[in-house]
Amino acid sequence: MDIGLKVWNEVKDNLSSAKVYLKEFLFFNAIFILFSFLIIDNRIIVFTLIILLFLLSLVFLNMVGYKRKGELNEVKSVVAGIRKNTFNRPEEIKLSKNLQALQEEIKQMFEKEINDIEYLKKLERVRTEFLANVSHELRTPIFAIQGYIETLLDGAIDDKNVNKNFLDKANQHTINLSNLLSDLIDISMIESGEMRMSYRYFDINEYISQIIQEMTTMAKEKNIELVYHPAKAGLQLFGDKSKLKQVFTNLITNAIKYTEHGKVEVLVEEEQKYAKIIIRDTGIGISQEDIARIFERFYRVDKARSRAVGGTGLGLAIVKHIVEAHNSKIEVKSEPGVGSEFSFRLKK
Ligand code: ADP
Q1: How confident is the model over 247-265, as pLDDT tens digits?
Q2: Cα(12)–Cα(51) distance, rounded to whole angstroms?
Q3: What is the CATH number assigned to the segment(s) 200-347?
Q4: Domains 130-191 and 200-347 share a fold
Q5: Where are the domains of the chain?
Q6: pLDDT confidence of 64, banded at 50, 70, 90?
Q7: Which residues is 270 bridged to in the sheet?
Q8: Of 65, 66, 106, 305, which one is least surrounded by beta carbons within 10 A?
Q9: 300 Cβ closer than 6 Å to some ligand 1 atom
Q10: 286 lines ligand 1 (CB under 6 A)
Q11: Which ligand 1 atom is the nearest neighbour of the CA of 285?
Q12: Cα–ligand 1 centroid distance for 340 (angstroms)
């Protein structure tokens, strides 16, 4: 009795699984019946055939339903496995032979899901790290300013030997703080995709000469020669002038900041379709390991030195973004103790 009920339930299940093909079966049965009536005169044979066909159809529907149910269960259990994180790697997902195409699709979907989750986790880590860095960077100048002001209030204000010096130092830290805030605003604008670019052709010699002129005082203060080797007269290059100004200013400022003696040169070398822009210095240089990291946000080879010269650790990250927005790449060649060369290309 029990077995009979079990089989009946199984058959019911199979038939309900095969319900999707019911229309097709009815259609073929109807055609068969019609032809049987047309071709065969003997009514008894026709009715026997119809009953036989009906029984065969039931058996066939049961078989098809059984197979379909099995396949659906396989897919269901794989999807449930993904939902419950049972799989660690796409290779663990396996379906039977006739479902290979579906298996590949599910594998790819699973792989994408793993990558997306990894990416989100990485973003979260980067965000936390960035916040920690920003807080640290803000705290340093604020604590310093606070320290100087408190010392002055505690009596140092009347000590002519130190009062001006302390005020100068506090002032330098407010400048650092303001540099940091403007770099932070720039980097967040760039990274949130809000940087609007406005490209056009401009005279590169005129443009760089103007920047060099503005930066000469800074170089002179450090006794460094700042030289521009112009390109052929009237050479027009394509780019966003205002964003590129930040690139030139950051690279030339760095070249001056990290050079103790010698010179800083800016060169424009014409190529076939591009012009290569080079900023070269005779400064402290950068080791190979550090070259790989200087474009990271807040990375400095020598933190104290960078802070002492008003660095924020964000300059090169901003430069990289802007240069890449020009479909170019920033390249660095450097030798510690000899000097550094930063270069990128602009379209002619
Ligand atoms: P910072 O504000 O500290 O200068 P940057 O992002 O501009 O930050 O540069 C990152 C680091 O790369 C600097 O702290 C410095 O150690 C190194 N660096 C950049 N430019 C030069 C250079 N021309 N010569 C030597 N070191 C450099």
Answers
A1: 999 999 999 999 999 999 9
A2: 20
A3: 3.30.565.10
A4: no
A5: 2-86, 130-191, 200-347
A6: very high
A7: 275
A8: 305
A9: yes
A10: yes
A11: 25
A12: 10
